[in-house]
Amino acid sequence: MADVLADVLEVEGLKKAFGAHVAVNGLSFQVRAGECFGLLGPNGAGKSTTLKLCLGQLLPDSGRIRLLDEPVPERAREARIQVGVVPQNDPLDPDFTVAENLLVFGRYFGQTDALTRSRIPDLLDFAQLASKRDARIQTLSGGMKRRLTMARALINDPRVLVLDEPTTGLDPQARHLIWERLKRLMALGKTLILTTHFMDEAERLCDRLLIVDHGKAIALDTPTRLIDREIEPHVIEVHGPSRALWAVQAERLCERLETVGETSFAYCRDPMPVLQSLQAHSDLRVLHRPANLEDVFLKLTGRDLRE
Q: Long-range pairs for 20-24 at CB < 8 Å and ≥24 separation?
């Protein structure tokens, strides 16, 4: 079914440089109607630049973009009428109440105040902010501000919702609430385009993922297929006093052994030889778990810190 859905975003050969720095280097991908499409990458990989190019907020050096069947940047304004954007920060106006922030934002889309007012109650219920309708922005918690920013992005009933790291800085309860709300939007047929540094978030929400690094696409598939294709199924994490001694033996018992700081990661198809080798090291702490999207991400983009 998904394969026959129309594309709401088409990107082909997209390039953008800032001086000598190439931020986006030949990206090509499509986003299908009704899916949650994840854009993943380390800091500086080109994710936010790509989103700004797709929304017409930056001019590309070369390449082709069509958003909701409109060419971008030539008709970006017409396309964005049908798009909602949740930026990394929460650009809410502190001079207005919660409801007034929604009302004023509706005017940016040329909506009548009457239409916007008719949508506000449902949006506040959606964001669990009905009791905060007349509250000032300064009185809201971080999670409340994030939910209000999401409600604001829905004021024009968009077909596509672009979310740039929507849960960064939130506690687990707030993150789970936003995940539930995003799943509700998907059930209504909205298309989501998501960037995140939380691999569990991407794995839970995204139908497909594009991993980028240094402005280039390095992997594109469903989370499950990426895990199955790119990584061994078992991961054994080991740390403790005799870890280095054990690691010398373990290297020949698994497909890959990586050491980061004081922890070794054994990637295995058959975990039993590694687990048996650990029995002689009672001082070691061991976690045996299935491989996940974070393992794939680190394998493809490396473990070095990015600034």
A: 22/214, 22/215, 23/49, 23/215, 24/49, 24/50, 24/53, 24/60, 24/215
Residue 306 is predicted with a pLDDT of 60
236, pLDDT greater than 70: yes
> Is 232-290 assigned to CATH 3.30.70?
yes
**The domain over range 2-82+158-228 is classified in CATH as 3.40.50.300:** yes
Interacting residues of 131 by C-beta distance below 8 A, sequence separation 6+: none
**Residue 3: pLDDT over 80:** no
Cα–Cα distance measured from residue 285 to residue 101, given in angstroms and rounded to the nearest whole number: 51
Residue 40: pLDDT band (50, 70, 90) is very high
